[in-house]
Write a structure and sequence with these properties.
single chain; 324 residues; alpha+beta; five-stranded mixed β-sheet; 8 helices; 19% strand; globular
Length: 324
């Protein structure tokens, strides 16, 4: 049951909590296969998007016993993440005044090995033509590496480009691959693309955010509502729609998605049937980058962190067995 369904969460549009919950209920058959088993971070707006919201990882007191969850290590303890895998869990999520669920790139029970790779194009200015060109450059390089890719709007300023993985590469290997992909793309078009994290250093360039692929990092889930006027949706689209300019980052909204779903269904439905290994693409990237390949562009995970992560898995598995 949704409490306070008449609470207005999008004041400029009059969109209520009940409407948001109804949207997530309607989109559940398309959305759940993409988020099931992934630790979830909730972006919540108890007073609506006109007021500051917050990100919540830990499930709080009063969370129903039936909600699936997983306890995972962090630097100074553990985080208990919710897992949303059915309509009831999705309704619980919406009832927390959640606008956007953000998900990991891996799933239980094998959280060490991502099953999807994400490139997030984050433009510094509103230039649709340059943004499209950047997205198509990402697709071209992935094609060159033998990797099929699927785009979706972010519901914000840019696009997410996804590659399904076979689950044989760990977080560190996938993150290193992402860094190399972004490095090569920037080398090919330094005028329009950048890896600079600080906004002040980007100028007018598009930030290629491949940091979504690290341990504990997240991206806006497919079909998620975004906390912006109009309630735009982060929705799958086709490369043809993107290339033609038919689809922009905020083309789809909570109130237009019913027609979109009826028209095209789930454009990502076949994504995980085309999972790929990174072994050959990494070897090819090494050749393309030559001396610019960075073996360790960041610090490796410590052995202790991996050990603690496994301890978290053990506790989660024991809890599942106890409730079975």
């Amino acid at each position: 049951m949704i409490t306070h369904p008449d609470k207005v969460l999008f004041p400029d549009d009059g969109i209520t909590k009940g409407e948001v919950a109804a949207y997530y209920d309607a989109v559940a058959p398309l959305m759940l296969p993409h988020i099931r088993g992934r630790p979830l971070t909730l972006e919540r707006f108890p007073r609506g998007i006109a007021q500051k919201g917050f990100m919540q990882k830990n499930v709080g007191k009063g969370t129903p016993d039936w909600l699936e969850r997983i306890e995972l290590p962090k630097k100074d303890g553990v985080t208990v993440y919710p897992l949303v895998g059915d309509e009831r869990s999705l309704a619980w999520m919406a009832n927390q005044n959640t606008i956007t669920p953000h998900v990991w790139t891996s799933r239980v029970p094998d959280l060490e090995h991502p099953d999807i790779f994400i490139v997030d194009l984050d433009p510094s200015e509103d230039n649709p033509e340059t943004l499209r060109a950047g997205a198509l450059a990402v697709r071209a390089l992935l094609d060159e590496l033998g990797l099929p890719s699927w785009p979706k709007t972010t519901g914000s300023k840019g696009y997410h480009i996804a590659v399904p993985l076979d689950g044989n590469s760990d977080f560190e290997q996938v993150a290193r691959f992402g860094y190399a992909v972004a490095s090569l793309l920037v080398a090919r078009d330094p005028e329009h693309l950048t890896q600079e994290f600080a906004k002040a250093d980007r100028g007018t360039r598009i930030f290629l955010d491949v940091g979504r692929n690290g341990y504990g990092a997240t991206y806006a889930a497919p079909y998620a509502v975004r906390p912006k006027p109009g309630a735009p949706i982060s929705a799958p689209c086709t490369w043809e729609e993107l290339e033609s300019g038919e689809v922009a980052p905020q083309s789809f909204t909570l109130r237009t998605m019913a027609a979109r779903m009826a028209d095209v269904g789930d454009l990502w439905a076949g994504l995980h049937k085309r999972r790929r290994s990174l072994r050959r693409p990494v070897a090819q990237l090494r050749r393309l980058l030559g001396d610019d390949w960075e073996e360790e562009p960041w610090a490796s995970q410590s052995a202790r962190r991996v050990q603690v992560m496994h301890e978290g898995y053990a506790r989660w598995a024991a809890d599942r067995r106890a409730k079975a």
